[in-house]
Amino acid sequence: MRVIYWNTSCLEPEIEAISKEVFQLARHFDPSLIFSINSHLLFRHSWKERFIGFHPNFDLLLRALIPMVARFGDIHHIYGELCPWIFFKTLHNVRPLLLTVASEKGTINQEFFNCCQKIIVQTETLREKLVDLGVEKTKVELIYPGVKCSQFRPVSDGPRITERPRVLFATAPRSQDEMEGRGVWLLLHAAKEAQDVDFTLLYRPWRTGYTSLNPTRNFIANHHIQNVVLDNAAVSDMSVLYRAHHFIVIPYTSSDGGKECPNSLIEALASGLPALISSACPFSYFVEAHQCGVVFEPSPSNFIKALEEGVRKLPLLSKNAAKVARKKFSQEIVLQKYETMYRKF
Are 126 and 283 in contact (CB under 8 A)? Predict the structure, then answer.
């Protein structure tokens, strides 16, 4: 069984969530091929890792190349946005065709969905939305991203706040244009008000198109914010960072502010960190339903109130976070679900 993962990731699994998920699947379902189209690529490939990536400007070449490559696949799995247009144009005749919606950016294309045998979503919110729009209920499947729960463990004696709460933001935007929707400005304004709280903003050293770092630095410096640490690094062991904080924050101000089910969120939950999550994020329903964090309306003042509530309820929220992560996000469970699905075709 050879799976071809057609996707829109930047092929940087060490810092980018969709890339990480695709590489995780490709390494498990060996032999596989990763074929990516992303505006931050010119041309990248590795025969060892079996991936190849192009810039969208290679449109004419790609329209000819993709059908040729598709001949070598037994299963075609598109992984990325709602309707990656070039794959819709070039892969609509291949079978079986699966789509994992890891980002709800873009518009829904019913014709494209009709071409897919399975549509995998990462939030209950999107599953209900697609069914309401007329997509067959049996075609839509909910599979969360998977993490190695053994790698992300909560502190053995439970979380404690002896002095100042420590909040981690690890869903950093790549571009300045994303900063509003991702909630960066909201969080920085909240940090100005909550001087008794320590914040860590983990940014990533992107290869290209990196325009969010300097505006963030400038805002922190110009407003003399002393309780924010801005770290621009690819962290090799995120579990250490999670264990050094009390909460993970997802402060989106719009529903498409970032990945609907952020990997940093599920890793943090597995580490026993409750989530402080904006109601604008499509995954907020999960946090509320499983009582593994606090949901807030997207504003600095509401975030501060949510943090205060989180501090009061920290032991219970932390226990629930670790428990639900092992039940819902275990990498072994996720891979088994995909394998069961693949075997049906």
Answer: no
Examine the pLDDT at 108 and tell me if it is beyond 90: no
Question: pLDDT digit string (tens) for 31-58?
Answer: 999 999 999 999 999 999 999 999 999 9
160 CB contacts (<8 Å, ≥6 apart)? Answer: none
Q: What mean pLDDT is predicted for residues 334-345?
A: 95
Kind and range of the H or E run holding 158: none
Give the residue among 64, 243, 65, 22 at the shortest CA–CA distance from 151: 243
- pTM for the predicted model, two decimal places: 0.94
Is the bond preceding 262 in cis, omega lying within 30 degrees of 0? no
The contacts of residue 203 (CB under 8 Å, 6+ apart) are 172, 212, 213, 216, 230, 231, 232, 233
Q: How far apart are CA 319 and CA 335, in angstroms?
A: 25
Number of other residues whose CB lies within 10 A of the CB of residue 101 = 25
**Residue ranges of the alpha helices (H) in the chain?**
17-28, 59-70, 85-91, 110-115, 124-132, 179-182, 184-193, 213-222, 238-243, 263-270, 284-289, 300-312, 314-328, 331-343
Residue 132 has a pLDDT of 93
Tokens representing 70?
């598709």
Nearest one of 63, 65, 91 to 78, comparing CA atoms: 91
DSSP state of 161: -
